[in-house]
Amino acid sequence: MSGGATAGGACRFRAHVLPGDANHSGTVTLQDWVQERLRRSRSTTAPGAGPFAYDVLHDLDGDGKIDDTDLNIVRRNLLQSLPAAERTSVLASARALPPALAAALAARSASAALPSATRDLFSAVPILN
After folding, report:
1. Cα separations (Å) of 96 from 11, 34, 38, 109?
2. Measuring CA to CA, which of 72, 76, 118, 126 is 20 to 30 A from 36?
């Protein structure tokens, strides 16, 4: 839903990109370095096989091959992290929610230790009595 369920409403989306975070953990770590190193010399023309075959997500500069340039991107950003996300959810900001559901989502969002895009959608906690 965009624009708060209002036609022509303002859309607000946030996209975070962290160069070197090949496993999308939110932080560039040694694991990213190892994954890049194990895929070194793989390319779209020589992808290899198995778990360390060429993968577009590990081709950090998008040139079709995993090489020293990709490893340098990881090294340059080692230990960098994405900024903390806002603690609002798409559902909590929608206008058409029943009051009980909106209150339950707001309470869960306020008490959540880490932000999650799916926590409000898939939960073990009942939202209706």
Report:
1. 16, 47, 49, 18
2. 118
User: What is the pTM (predicted TM-score) of this model?
Assistant: 0.57
Residues of the chain with CATH 1.10.1330.10: 11-83
Q: What is the pLDDT of residue 92?
A: 45
pLDDT of residue 21: 92
pLDDT above 80: residue 103 = no
One-letter-per-residue 3-state SS of the chain: CCHHHCCCCCCCCCCCCCCCCCCCCCECCHHHHHHHHHCCCCECCCCCCHHHCCCHHHCCCCCCECCHHHHHHHHHCCCCECCCCCCCCHHHHCCCCCHHHHHHHHHHHHHCCCCCCCCCCCCCCCCCC
One-letter amino acid for residue 59 of the chain: D
pLDDT for 86 equals 60
Burial of residue 75 (CB within 10 Å: 0-12, 13-18, 19+) is middle
pLDDT class for 50, splitting at 50, 70, 90?
very high
